[in-house]
Description:
The protein is mainly β. The protein is 13% helix and 54% strand. It has three helices and 21 strands. The chain has helices at 2-16, 24-28, 128-149, and strands at 30-36, 43-52, 57-66, 71-73, 75-81, 84-90, 96-103, 106-112, 118-126, 166-173, 179-190, 195-198, 203-206, 212-214, 219-222, 236-245, 248-266, 269-284, 289-300, 305-312, 317-326. It has a twelve-stranded antiparallel β-sheet. An eight-stranded antiparallel β-barrel has the order 1-2-3-5-6-7-8-9. A hairpin with a 4-residue loop joins strand 11 and strand 12. The chain is globular and about 65 Å long. The model is unreliable at 1-20 (pLDDT under 50).
Amino acid sequence: xxxxxxxxxxxxxxxxxxxxxxxxxxxxxxxxxxxxxxxxxxxxxxxxxxxxxxxxxxxxxxxxxxxxxxxxxxxxxxxxxxxxxxxxxxxxxxxxxxxxxxxxxxxxxxxxxxxxxxxxxxxxxxxxxxxxxxxxxxxxxxxxxxxxxxxxxxxxxxxxxxxxxxxxxxxxxxxxxxxxxxxxxxxxxxxxxxxxxxxxxxxxxxxxxxxxxxxxxxxxxxxxxxxxxxxxxxxxxxxxxxxxxxxxxxxxxxxxxxxxxxxxxxxxxxxxxxxxxxxxxxxxxxxxxxxxxxxxxxxxxxxxxxxxxxxxxxxxxxxxxxxxxxxxx
Length: 329
């Protein structure tokens, strides 16, 4: 009798969570396009399973990220309250999305970034064809933007940053192709001596000539100078800087030369850029390990920043490419 009672309760639980003639699995397992107001690059949410935690709460197995980039696991849940359904997401960096279902295929709500700013967001159910069309649209938009704003202008002058400028890079291990991290820098304040803003997990700061002083992952001393302004082909310079990265502390010394001005293609588009090649050595005080390294960087004047960075030192071999940007002109 007890078994029958438990079964009836479970059956009632399942039936109570059917809406529009579908189960939660049927309603939620799908790809969803995520549009944050004011952002042209869209994200995708891919839900693969829904697990009941109570009569009104379901946890979702899902990944989330740029529709034309990499996606990573995300904390996701569905909450039922009468006829209302809420979809809530928390990304790995800490952004929070809270939405309510408007139709069987649309959720609307708010996106709160790690900087605390809140924007409207819409989440729309999407087919495979919808995703492919969005990837094509983004690619065409980037090409159009680069043609409009990124002319062949090798001025090499010191960039003029503005609040709202932002860049997103994806870093991969060149030996395995595995994504190591995504880095985003957004400018919020500009002074004569410092460009301030935030990255995925905290504050960042750099000088107007692109010397990174601090991020959420490390701080520097000395002159971490990847670019020397005004940029001139044939220019050579040396620089030394110290770093503190978590428990590790050390120094790097490099000699760099501007060797060419050329077109470079990255996921964010095609741009004219200066290619800067460097070589040097590094010493990690903490691990007492040292070695030599090589760098190849591409600086695009129209984007005010490096669009591609390649680094190898015997232990690490990575390439960092620009995947998205917002530039105030």
